[in-house]
Amino acid sequence: MKNNRIGLKLGLVISGLFLVVLLFLGVAVDRMFTSFYYANMRTETEELASHFSVMAESSEGDTMGMMGTFAEFSGVGIYNVRRDGNVMMHSGVQDPGCLSFIRASDVDAIYSGQKVSYLYKDPAGGRYFVSGEPVVKEGKVVSALYIMASTERMDRSLAGVRKLLILSGIGAFLLALGSTWIIAQFLSRPLLQMQKATRKIAAGELETRVDIGSKDEMGALAGAINDLAVDLQRYRDSRQEFFANISHELRTPITYLEGYANVVKERLYETDEEKDRYLDIIYMEARRIQHLVDDLFELAKMEEGKISLEPEWVDLAELTEQAVEKTKLKAGNKSLELQFTVQGTPEPMYTDGARMEQIVLNLLENAIRYTERGTVNVRLSFQPGAVKLAVQDTGIGIPADELPFIFERFYRVEKSRSRSHGGTGLGLSIVHKLTGLLGGKITVASRLGEGTCFELHFELEPEPREEHL
Ligand SMILES: Nc1ncnc2c1ncn2[C@@H]1O[C@H](COP(=O)(O)OP(=O)(O)OP(=O)(O)O)[C@@H](O)[C@H]1O
Ligand SMILES: [Mg+2]
């Protein structure tokens, strides 16, 4: 039961609620019956009183004896009371033992022609309905006739009704308790199942899945837990892969650094040129690590959403031209032709200029790095409300089956070939993330041995016109 707390709580709440409702209902029904029986008995007694008073009024001969028989037959008591309160005649079955039910004020009222009726409780605890009527002869009230009926029979009937009410209440309560228990089981079982599964997932068993097929909220919760497990699994795998990649990326340059630094330290070189060559290698590898650390830092910031953009109105044509200028030297070193063309009417773009330049430079550097001869073509084309930037090269290209992965972290086509080019495989994943952050899309098309073309698409916001007052 310890694990079944929700069932217990639910059971308690519903049973409590049922109990309260049943109690109120029971009291209400009991009241209803009681007042019904009382009203009934009151009218009956009053009717009897009128009946007997009419009999007394027309009394001749042995009316009193007849009335006594009648009274006995109806199970009531008759009292004929004089003006001073003394009983002239008493007959019938009821005898409360004392006459305190005859109150002077009532006798006065009856003698002035009124009727009285009330509930009387004798000192022994017996309860009676009392009804008093005047007996009129020749227009004059001659006596007060009291009829006294015990409530015993009515109380017995009421007790029977009460017993029935209590029994059906207990029955209804037990039924509610049973059905609540079943509902609680029904509700808490999948919850317990999910609790177990989440505990397992938290303990690292990420392959755990909850098997609840229902289409209700429980099913939706189970689905959400399963999705969470899948996400965690993916996250764990990519994190493992990420760390493996980082350590692999760092190990190579560090091995170089260690080896060549040792050669220089132990003076294992023969000429000064040789020493300079080793120092150059050390310098290059140190820069490589720097580059890697910078890129990783940038990516981490982007993934945590900690990168803040500084948008402004940017002349994209000018920005791209400057980026092309910056890479001209590198292209020149490899005797590559670098072309830049603008199509359409240039429109300003509201974006983060520095980030945009980072994207263009990355694509340009890749194009130059992976092209041995030919041309790198940069085309900027403005259409109404949109702009497209294409960076096309005539380089080594990317195999079609590797194209879907090139935006992933550390992904490099043919590891050895890009290592000889000095890449770490982070550039394009940064480009991809930045493009997304700036609200654009990036696509790539490539043919192995023929060249590659990266295309950026951005929507252009209309520039707000300056208001003239
Ligand atoms: N223009 C291109 N032509 C051919 N292959 C390319 C081109 N651009 C990217 N690639 C391939 O995609 C891989 C990923 O590129 P990415 O820019 O992410 O990494 P990188 O250039 O190797 O290193 P980094 O840019 O981090 O210094 C590269 O290793 C390369 O194999
Ligand atoms: Mg690159």
Automatic annotation (TrEMBL):
It is found in: Cell membrane; Membrane raft. It comes from the Bacteria. It is an enzyme of class 2 (transferase). InterPro entries: HAMP_dom, HATPase_C_sf, HATPase_dom, His_kinase_dom, HisK_dim/P_dom, HisK_dim/P_sf, Sensor_HK_Regulatory, Sig_transdc_His_kin-like_C. The keyword Transmembrane helix applies. GO terms for cellular component: membrane raft; plasma membrane. Its EC number is 2.7.13.3. The keyword tRNA processing does not apply. Residues 245-462 form the Histidine kinase domain. Keywords: ATP-binding, Cell membrane, Kinase, Membrane, Nucleotide-binding, Phosphoprotein, Transferase, Transmembrane, Transmembrane helix, Two-component regulatory system. It catalyses: ATP + protein L-histidine = ADP + protein N-phospho-L-histidine. SMART domains: HAMP (SM00304), HATPase_c (SM00387), HisKA (SM00388). The chain crosses the membrane at residues 6-29, 164-184. Residues 185-237 form the HAMP domain. GO terms for molecular function: ATP binding; phosphorelay sensor kinase activity. It is a multi-pass membrane protein. Pfam families: HAMP, HATPase_c, HisKA. This is histidine kinase. It comes from Paenibacillus sophorae.
